[in-house]
Amino acid sequence: MVTSDQRRRQLARDKYQRQQQRRADARRRSRRNSVIAASLAVVIAAGGAVYLSVALSGDDKKSDNAATEPTNTPSPEQSTSSQPEPAMSVDKKASYTMALKTNQGDITITMDAAKAPHTVNSFKHLADKKYFDGTKCHRLTTSGIFVLQCGDPKGDGTGGPGYVIPDENLNGLGKAGADGSVTYPKGTVAMANAGANTGGSQFFLVYKDTKLPPNYTPFGTFDAAGLKVVEDVAKAGVQGGAGDGAPQKGVTIEKAVVSKK
């Protein structure tokens, strides 16, 4: 049964998304019949790429992990970046905490605004709007890479806030090796994306050291208690016994709060 608190959170999130959609519609109308609109049609078509595929560079090269890398397949609204990113409001010299209350246990993420100001600012903006409340962590990988992916209000890997943020701190985990990858240590939190500078609201929690190209903004770490939560989810596996898909042990973010440390 849906509680009154859950209903209020859902209404708040729906209101926010309607506001974003109205602004997107206004911008689309202003671009109608323009050269920009024509060029965007190509980008929108590209936004329909098959889920779980990701272009890692400007050419057609993909790494060995291309089929399983953390990616958000953007909706047309997201892929056209129909909204500007939120105005900068965080202290770029400070650290922030994102407390995730989930049905499987609490996960506390420490975020460094000095290294990833746009990313931290976006999470603060969205959390304040209750954007993440009631959303599911839609993807677990248990083979090749080891992450739990969250932050999609649609719950299918295609959702986003209607704007994109730039990649940041891509050298934060060191220089790529001969195989083109770096190690994302367990406890790392990073942004999923659909290519360069396409981050939205989706992020992934690394529960076991994972090699990936340095293409995903590492913007924080999560605590030992949170790591235990994610490890327990991983132990239960993926629905259907696959190595990549919805977690068998479902994870719902009941509430997300971002505060300055």
TrEMBL record:
Gene3D superfamilies, sorted: Cyclophilin-like (2.40.100.10)
Entry's EC annotation: 5.2.1.8
CDD domains: cyclophilin
Record's catalysed reaction(s): [protein]-peptidylproline (omega=180) = [protein]-peptidylproline (omega=0)
Domain PPIase cyclophilin-type: from-to ranges: 105-258
Region (Disordered): 1-32, 59-91
Biased composition (Basic and acidic residues): 1-17
Pfam family, one: Pro_isomerase
GO MF annotation list: peptidyl-prolyl cis-trans isomerase activity
Name of the protein in its database record: Peptidyl-prolyl cis-trans isomerase
Species annotation: Streptomyces showdoensis
